[in-house]
Structures are given as C-alpha cells and as structure tokens.
Design brief:
mainly alpha, about 25% helix, single chain
Length: about 70
C-alpha cells in the first residue's frame, strides 16, 4: 500500500450495494492497465538512421576499387 498514513485511497466505492466480486473485477481491470512504467520505444530502423546520409570516404590505394564493393 502506501507508506504515509494520511494518503488518499486510490479507489473509493460510492454505491452501497456493490458486491466484493464487482470490486475485485474493477481492481483487476485497473491492475491490467499498467502502472508507472513507460511504454517501450520501438526499435529504430537502421535504414532511417541519420548516419546513412553522411557519405563515407572511398578506399584508396592498392585494391581500393575492389574494397569499395565489399560490405562495410
């Protein structure tokens, strides 16, 4: 629960004819909605990475033309 004794309750039942099963159902729904954790960010595609816009220097020297076609 909470550590402070004067904290307000998170849930208050205002109708007197509410059954314990109904209270348990609404508590289960609220518990399933989640809490304080932030939603996970989707993984960023490497295709859209800004580093792809910067052109890399081409290999030069002996065999440079062959190395330019090789994967990085």
């Amino acid at each position: 629960m909470t550590d402070t004794p004067d904290a307000q309750p998170l849930l208050r039942v205002v109708t007197p004819d509410t059954t314990p099963e109904e209270v348990a159902a609404i508590v289960a729904v609220f518990a399933a909605l989640g809490g304080d954790e932030a939603p996970a960010r989707p993984a960023r595609s490497q295709w859209a990475h800004p580093g792809r816009a910067a052109r890399r220097t081409l290999p030069h020297g002996q065999g440079g033309w062959r190395a330019s076609g090789l994967p990085r």
